[in-house]
């Protein structure tokens, strides 16, 4: 058993060393150590142990496929490393799923303490109501107070409640918590919080924990580690300007002045944030608009030797897959 785990760990580290970015190598090196330690310290039944080893082996194959140029596997690696899925997502989201400063809501069932409805913190409200932080359609504000999956009978003054009778309080509690859990799981957690001047829209000098504490704002789990700045550096600036919105194109055709600052661009162009209370959700200045996300002309130039080697492996892997597909035909 020890020899098998040692061999598995070596294979894990061998694949991690081939990842093209320093943060990815650091993250998966720590993850590999935690995974192997969990296997060594636990003494579960053989079938459970076998499933855990199989899961670690699957993670290794994912990294190997990413190193060989499989784009879907590499997207999975990025999602895990930056908290878009997996354990890290829960660790990033957990602090903002509650609000210690919020007033405790009353019980739906007077005699049951656990019947209190969920509390939507200002951070989670901004994320749920923004299209930038979700892959699905954003919610509307009234959905936070009365979920759309909650029957109208929950309102005692409604016509349905008068005709069919009031809704079960226990069922109302379960529906509210089910909706809250389902929706926050669709959120993409931000890497950090940046303080901005509400009058000018300009960023402050930094986003350190001291500045956040002075402003009364909670930081995210990756706050202050420079991970967000590293992602911006890797993404690089735009090769071409963002496309104009329909209103801007109309103004241009009419000869109207189009000297609009970037921070006041329409949200569909990815520049302007969406404000809710004192929080706003916005894309990075280096983020691609959805219409340009798969345009090769927008990609930054690749300079490091490790990145060039990774791209060459991707080209070779694509050729091998194409040749294999032709042989199968």
Characterization of this structure:
The chain has 329 residues and is mostly helical. The protein contains 13 helices and two strands; from the N terminus they run H-H-H-H-H-H-H-H-H-H-H-H-E-E-H. The chain has helices at 2-16, 22-41, 46-67, 71-81, 87-93, 122-128, 142-145, 159-164, 169-184, 209-215, 227-235, 246-253, 305-328, and strands at residues 274-276, 279-281. The chain has a two-stranded antiparallel ribbon. The longest helix has 24 residues, at 305-328. The radius of gyration is 25 Å and the shape is globular.
Topology summary:
Elements: H1 2-16, H2 22-41, H3 46-67, H4 71-81, H5 87-93, H6 122-128, H7 142-145, H8 159-164, H9 169-184, H10 209-215, H11 227-235, H12 246-253, E1 274-276, E2 279-281, H13 305-328
Antiparallel strand pairs: 1-2
Helix pairs in contact: 1-2, 1-3, 2-3, 3-4
């Amino acid at each position: 058993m020890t020899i098998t785990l040692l061999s598995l760990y070596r294979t894990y580290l061998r694949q991690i060393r081939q990842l093209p970015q320093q943060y990815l190598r650091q993250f998966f090196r720590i993850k590999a150590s935690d995974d192997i330690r969990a296997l060594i310290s636990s003494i579960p039944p053989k079938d459970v142990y076998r499933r855990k080893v199989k899961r670690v082996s699957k993670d290794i194959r994912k990294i190997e496929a990413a190193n060989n140029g499989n784009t879907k596997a590499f997207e999975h690696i990025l999602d895990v490393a930056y908290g878009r899925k997996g354990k890290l997502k829960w660790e990033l989201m957990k602090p903002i799923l509650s609000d210690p400063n919020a007033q405790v809501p009353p019980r739906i069932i007077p005699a049951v303490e656990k019947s209190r409805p969920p509390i939507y913190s200002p951070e989670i409200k901004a994320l749920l109501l923004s299209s930038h932080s979700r892959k699905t359609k954003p919610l509307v504000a009234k959905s936070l107070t009365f979920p759309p999956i909650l029957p109208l009978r929950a309102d005692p003054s409604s016509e349905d409640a008068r005709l069919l009778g009031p809704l079960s309080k226990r069922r109302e509690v379960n529906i509210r918590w089910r909706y809250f859990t389902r929706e926050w799981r669709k959120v993409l957690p931000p890497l950090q919080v940046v303080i901005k001047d509400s009058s000018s829209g300009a960023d402050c000098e930094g986003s350190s924990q001291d500045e956040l504490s002075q402003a009364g704002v909670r930081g995210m789990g990756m706050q202050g580690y420079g991970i967000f700045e590293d992602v911006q550096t890797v993404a690089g600036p735009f090769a071409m300007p963002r496309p104009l919105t329909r209103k801007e194109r109309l103004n241009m055709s009419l000869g109207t002045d189009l000297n609009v600052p970037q921070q006041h661009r329409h949200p569909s162009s990815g520049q302007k944030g969406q404000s809710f209370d004192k929080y706003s959700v916005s894309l990075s200045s280096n983020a691609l608009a959805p219409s340009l996300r798969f345009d090769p002309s927008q990609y930054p130039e690749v300079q490091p030797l490790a990145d060039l080697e990774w791209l060459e492996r991707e080209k070779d892997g694509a050729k091998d897959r194409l040749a294999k597909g032709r042989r199968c035909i």
